[in-house]
From TrEMBL:
Keyword Ribonucleoprotein: no
Keywords annotated in UniProt: Hydrolase
PANTHER family membership: STAGE II SPORULATION PROTEIN E (PTHR43156:SF2), STAGE II SPORULATION PROTEIN E-RELATED (PTHR43156)
Source organism superkingdom: Bacteria
Annotated PAS domain residues: 154-192
Keyword Acetylation: no
Pfam families membership: GAF (PF01590), GAF_3 (PF13492), HATPase_c_2 (PF13581), PAS_4 (PF08448), SpoIIE (PF07228)
SMART domains linked to this entry: GAF, PP2C_SIG
Cross-referenced PROSITE patterns: PAS (PS50112)
InterPro entries according to UniProt: Bact_Sigma-Reg (IPR052016), GAF (IPR003018), GAF-like_dom_sf (IPR029016), HATPase_C_sf (IPR036890), HATPase_dom (IPR003594), PAS (IPR000014), PAS-like_dom_sf (IPR035965), PAS_4 (IPR013656)
Organism, scientific name: Streptomyces clavifer
Record protein name field: PAS domain S-box-containing protein
Amino acid sequence: MITARAAATFDPVGRSVATARAFVRDTLQGWGYSDVVDDAVVLTSELVTNAVVHAGTAADVLCLRTEDGVRVEVADHYPDREIPLQSSGPDFGSPDREGGRGLLLCAALASRWGVEYSPAHKHVWFQLDLPDRPVGIRSAGPLLPTALLPVTDERVRVAVVQIDRSGSITAWNDDADFLFGYAAEQVTGKQLTDIAAWPHTPGTSTGVADALLLSRWEGSYGIRGADGRVIPVYASHLRVRDTEGEPSTVCLLVRDDERAVLQTPARAPVSDFSAEHRTTDPFEVFIGSPAPDDLDGLLQRTVERARDMLDADSAFLLLATDDETELEVRATTGLPSARQRFARVPVEAGTGRYGSARMPAVHEDLTAVPGAVPLLSDTGMRSVVTVPLKVEGRLTGSLGVAAEAAGRYTNEEALRLQFAADRIALAVESARLGELERLRRGSLSFLVEASDLLAGTLDRDQTLALMAQMTVPTLATWCAVYTIADQSSDPYLSCVLHEDEERIDGLKALLSSIDPPDPVPAPGARIWPAPAAAGHRAALQVSTRTLGRDAPLSMGVAARTTLATAAAVGGETVVLPLVARNRVIGMLTLGKPSDDHFRQEILELAEDLSRRAALALDNARLYSERMAISQSLQRSLLPPGLPDVPNVEIEVIYRAAGEGNEVGGDFYDVFPIRDGAYGFAIGDVCGTGPEAAAVTGLARHALRLLAREGFGGPAVLERLNAAILDEGARSRFLTLPYGELWPQEDGSALLKVVCAGHPLPLRLRQDGSVEAAAEPQPLLGVIEDLELYEQEVTLDPGDVLLCVTDGVTERREGARMLGDDGLADVLSMCTGLTAGAVAGRILRAVERFAAEPASDDMAILAMRVPEPQHF
């Protein structure tokens, strides 16, 4: 049953992808479907990209809410699509391709999905079901298929061995006889260490004799059989008291490949829990019902219950990293949690007898073994007991309780705490995996949007700003970006951002006062202590100066800013290198406020972002450099300026087609030849862009050189024609009117004009009549032998001579073209206007003729002989 719907249509432009993602995210969050938002956003992003980018059509997005999930449909409007044969299977595409991953992701993430075709539409839909989460139920992962379960020889054999307080074997069952070849009478009374080899669980340093003294042990080692072979076994033992009250240890041993029989076994209830609890879920007995449905809530409830159970002063819970080498502080009670949260300690820390986090450990007095439990340093705690959290034999965390008094805990308390840890280990691991999965999907969505934003600009300053805005506050409280211009340059502080804008200036001043981090190219995040140390020194100086005053009321604004900045940088600060094309081009610095730490998942996400940002920043740098070079070269092809010609007004308007182009295939020039004579030209090289601009440079400089050598108009163009043909394959044909301008004493101007294949120059008389000022002649760059001639034209006071390139006359709107006649009509309306006004009116007429931007270069040259002024 559909309970709600939302629909939107997105134009076929790249920015629509981000808009569609925002639409789906806002819709699903408004419906309260946050569990499936990230998956829906990722799938929608791919499907809308296929429509608006690859198919080039608008995309229709429809969201349908049902009682148990959400359905999203994406349709495109491709005009001619062949409908696939029914027998043909779906083409998922390759995950390495830029496009076509939509169906592949649907198959991986969606509960159900499908494709519906019509000749003009393609509908792709996917269904995301809400997770079924009954109260108190947790799952550590999918069920293992029966075919993958371990195979045993005959039936499972569980050897039961009991050892007294001295380590001597007191009981040996039939399965032990079968597995190891010893009869009970052969081993009874002997030390277990006589037949136990100890290639023990990797990472531990405890011998078998020490392990037997622990309250509980679970791990791998070997038993030397009667035939002398070492048999790998998995063992679990429990230390108890026998009927006479003496310490005794019961060991259960199975073949190592059958360890699942003993791992996380059901335990007998200890005396803390009465008979009425024996039919109750042990997890709920310890945690309470209802259990928290989020990881942080579950961990906090766990440490509080553990503290209360052993009447401790504090408790803590640490979760293991994926490689089981470090433990991350996730919940504490009775300790400075803000300082400890997300801090990391190595698994094998400590110098005490039970220093490994993989085994239960009891420390009667921490002052006797300094550093044995790094988390408790300088907290006033003296005695502590820690136990591992294990799921299927893998270390997932460590639970500990501590007291301010020494000697508070023994193995009995360790046993009770271990039983509690066994009850909650699976729930903690399930919640942790769920959190990691949500983080992973959220990270994927974050990186998709970040890549979109970074790819959308080639401006260096905007790229730097985007880098900072994407990290704050999503990944860090504050961010600073250092850039390195070249290998010989020092890092430069280019951008600083804090989630509180009032802190930015103080943070920038603090970072500017210390040396930047070293540009180390090694991947990954590294700790940078300098900002915290500088902030601490500054805060200490301020506190010293205000000592004895009525602080903080008497403290000035600068002092308060210093203290606030010191608090802002007082936490963990990390530096990630920005490496692009095998060169360090900068550093991304992320920081936390006082006593705060980064999560490893956040650092890994920041590392992914830094790689993308580095490439985007380097692309922006390369683009800026090439654009600066291009613009500099292009500007060198333009005339330096227009000369002041006596009694003649001259105005030029020039527009080059193409983004970033200052010079194209059109050019102009007005220059002095000798006293009283000026050359002018306006030309059009075949094509646009840099190739055409190269020929314009040749033509403009050749015209100046030849004219100043004394050649007349026809001779100048004939020699220019030969120079263009000498370019060979790089030559391009060229049209231009070239002429000489001679101002006369009577106020008129004499023109000598040669028009080589170009739109004819037009003469506007005072009466509004328009006529051609020259005759057409062959263009340049096509044939070798040209016979050109020049024509004389006299401009009387008030007359205008207009020269344009074909970008003006060939301006189109559908089938209509401005043409020579349209240009003449516009010019005829310019009587009495100055040269600048004439050129401006021609430009406006061209721009208004069509709605689309001009696609061709355009040049307009207007010369006018002003009328005499009468006073």
